[in-house]
Amino acid sequence: MKTHTNIVPRPSRRGGVVTEFINDRGTWNADIVLGKSIRIYGTLKTYVKNVWTRRGRENVYEDVPFDRTFVISEFAEYDSWNLSYYGPITKISANSVTIADKNFSSDRKKRLDLYTFISRNVNFNHIRANEKNAEEMMYL
User: Which 8-state DSSP code applies to residue 73?
Assistant: First the structure.
């Protein structure tokens, strides 16, 4: 089993300058059993309310714990815009998760790094996503 702690976004390189990012959305961790499962856990920073202070309005956040386990062939989200695009997990490697594109009959696959996978799937429910997609399709 491989454990990743304090998962952050990949650094960005633009014009020869490398920018390191921090994860300001909580503390995210992952336990990976290669080729079998991935357990994501940690805390997710969630908006609670907006308060007035001497400096003006400030948002109040609360750290909400989460713990989810995904196995091969379980559905996970890989992209979204108006609709939620999801498919079965086909491969779990040490640093990424590969998801098959169920919306096309071809062999398209999407490979997500751990940060992207966790940010998209921390609260993912494919039944609710399917209902939301059906409702959204009525307005497109």
Answer: T
Distances (CA, A) of 1 to 38, 58, 70, 93: 10, 41, 14, 11
Tell me the whole-structure pTM to 2 decimals. Answer: 0.85
* Residue among 118, 121, 124 at smallest CA distance from 26: 118
Helices (H), 48-110: none
Are 11 and 21 within 8 A, CB to CB?
A: yes
Domain boundaries, the chain: 2-137
The sign one gets for the Cα dihedral 61, 32, 121, 111 is positive
Give the length of the chain.
140
The predicted-structure confidence for 60-113, as pLDDT tens digits, reads as follows 889 999 999 999 999 999 998 889 999 999 999 999 999 998 766 667 899 999
Give the N- to C-terminal CA distance of the chain in Å, as an integer.
Answer: 44
